[in-house]
Design a protein that fits this description.
Chain A has 17 helices and 14 strands. Helix content of chain A is about 40%, strand content about 20%. Chain A has two domains: about 210 residues, no CATH class; about 170 residues, no CATH class. Chain A has about 475 residues and is an alpha+beta fold. In chain A, strands 3, 4, 5, 6 and 7 form a five-stranded antiparallel sheet that branches. In chain A, strands 10, 11, 12, 13 and 14 form a five-stranded antiparallel sheet that branches. Chain B is an all-alpha fold. Among the domains of chain B are: about 100 residues, no CATH class; about 150 residues, no CATH class. Chain B is about 65% helix and about 0% strand. Chain B is built from 16 helices and two strands. The radius of gyration of chain B is 22 Å and the shape is globular. The chains are: A alpha+beta (about 475), B mainly alpha (about 400). Chains A and B meet through helix 2 of A and helix 10, helix 12 and helix 14 of B.
Amino acid sequence: MQKIMRSIKKILKQNPIIIGCFFILVLMGLLCLNRFWSSITNEESTVITKDLERENTIEAFEKPDELLVYELAALVHKDLDLCIRGCSVDEDWLGQDFAGIIDEAEEFSYTTTIPPANQYFEYQPISFSEIIEQHTMSYEYFQNILGHKKSVNVKAIGIVLPEEQNTAEYQLYSRKLCKTWGSNAVCEMVALVEADGTAYQVSFTVMQYGNGYWKVFRFGSSLLDTKGDDFITESTQEKFDEITGAAKVDTFITALEKKQDSDKEEAKSDKKKVKSYKHPEKQILSPNYSITASLYGESAVDTIGKFILALQRKDSQKAMCYGMTDSRTADMDSVTTELIEKQGTFSREMQLFYYELVTNNKFSETSESLLSLNKTGAGIASELSPENIPYLNVAGVVSADEEEDDNQYIAVYTFDGNIYMSGYTMCESENGWQIESLSAEAAGLSSGEVRKITDKKYHELLD
Amino acid sequence: MQIEKKITREMANRIFEVAYLVMLAMYTGFYFLNTTTFEMTWSTYFYSNMRIGLLLIIFARASLAEEYKLKEIAGCILVALVLLVAWEHNGFDELRDIVLLLVGAKDISYKKILKVYVGVVFVLLSYTMISALTGRIDNLIFRQDGRRARIAFGIGYPTDFSAYIFYMVLAVCCLRKEKIRYIEIGMIVLLGIFVYMFCDARLNTICLILVAGVMFYHKLRCSNAEKRGEEYEMNAIFSMLLALSATIFAFIMIGLSMLYSTDNKFLLLADRVLNNRLRLGKKGIDLYGFSIFGQQIPMIGNGGSTKQPKNYFFLDSSYLSASLRFGILAFGALLLILLVIAFRAREKKKWTLLWMVALMSLQCVVEHHMTDVSYCVMLYLFASDMTEVCRTKGTIKWFRRKKYAKDNALN
């Protein structure tokens, strides 16, 4: 041992630079360790429930009537997961023409449409959650009307007012809709369903995407003046026949696709064969959504800090995890409506939070005309850019009401040359702290509100 | 009598050495002018042509080398490999430029390199200052809350201007060494006061005053040793610490930034002293994290315009900036470069150079110029010749002798 120590000393005396190299290697090792530690402690921000683990049997439906058979089977069997898989989710947020929607409406408010997620990926989890929440609400409506029935059978599927859908006026409307949502074609359809002896019509708007697959765009039909919360009405065979006429679904869709091909500059010379499935109700489509995991902080302030850090890292999916209050997603068998609604509610608050911050409170939840705003849709879209969020600085987090221990906090930020505050209502569970809501009633801050404050107020809050 | 038209190896070596120094001057000038408010429009291929020229000079010098020391070649290859791989991943061109300038400087006298740097920066800085003061170019004056007016004298930001002064002073001190006169030391102090009065660059002022203090102390020690008839020898442990200064400061700065928390009073105080560098460093680590090969980190600083940016995020410390942006491997290579320069200076008893490297390492705690081509002349000394013989005058005499011999032969 002494010999070794002596020889080491000798080497170091002859080459003292080895000491420096050693320290540099130690420093590099520590940095690598820090990186490694960050990667292993990085928790997953989405979970796969047992429902979502189900492997798909097909990629997509190429016939809309088969899609509706599948969708109705999912609704009847109370399978929310399969129901959402049949609906357009990624297609909506990817294909949305945000500026076009605003221009068309000629007004803007924070709730006019889902955020422009195809332009700014930070909004993707928010748009995503809002879309699947919308489909879930329709699913819930179906369950409320027909869910308690003993037997529900699909009798027929048809096209809603086919002559109407062939008119130039509707063609123009459908083309606008396709352009707004990035689809190839749109078709309004209706199913005749018998539940415990009573006939109902269930209407849908379906869209064709990509290389010819169909998804349910919305529950309801504009031609029948039904939307997501009233798309089921009592009916009879005669009424149904009157609505659908003699038009066969296959013939109508083929004609619709031909019309769509003739509009394109190069007509498809080799039309591929449309796949058909004998028992579409037994198929499983591939999963097209995810569920936000639940993450916790060690304290209320720690949770708020982690939430803001996730936003600064442009990881809004992770930020959302701190708002999934005690949802216990890890060991769940099936996706529930409560879970998706919770996700949707918090994502709306986050949307408001983002909008208020990046636009400097320029807009509001109340609709204002584009004329009064002096903006176009594209102008509004560019105002909503969250690219500067990484520069957000948290100046401090204080209790909203020190006298009452009600877990409400105010965070003060500096951003874009201004000072802001926003509220947090926190809740504690056995796993830690989470954000119940982005509000602090004690301080008069509503959900998602971000309020600009003066220097004086800033010092009042933090000193 | 027939005149031999052959160029000897020695002649070729000297020619390419001069060519390298010209390229160094061009690179320094190019990068310097890009930091000024001159509206520069370079021709499309100017930069890439410069790079090609430098590459050719490197190949030529390598092929003319008479001997290759394995340790030196291995060191150059290792450093070049790491920096170039990192450059490929992260896209920061300064890494590639540092490699070229560093490898190209092999066996060239460190004094010549420093003289070229001082000459170029002095001339360009003087011209820039005069142009700014006479209104030929924008003279940015920054007025920030709680601070006096800060003048940039034609450079993009006042602290960048003061950093040029600092690095020039470092280079001059390395050249003057203990021969520096007290009046020159006084001038360094005056420069420190100047940058404080007109640029309000507090940290660079402290660094300049430290340089003056160190040179005063070193001169004193050297003259005392001379009076005793001895050669001044720095304390071994102290010189070791100076040689390790870059690594030590890197540890301290990165460590403090990682540990920074508003709950810790000491760190809050340190952050206030360092002008929020710990807070911003911590933010950079939290947001982007360390990576092996580096990453692009969007930063918004105060330079280039007197308009206060709405959002501010700038990694001022070279150690944090390099480790986060260039990656762990490239950062290690940069520290190794400084380590090798410092230990070579220690080995060859170049105490002034050792001090200057240590002071530069200190300045890098608060400034981001460690890898800025127009500032980091010290890095190019990695493989340079550190013997005392500076053959600038010798080179000119040598050419004159050759010409004289040729003319004689012709006659």
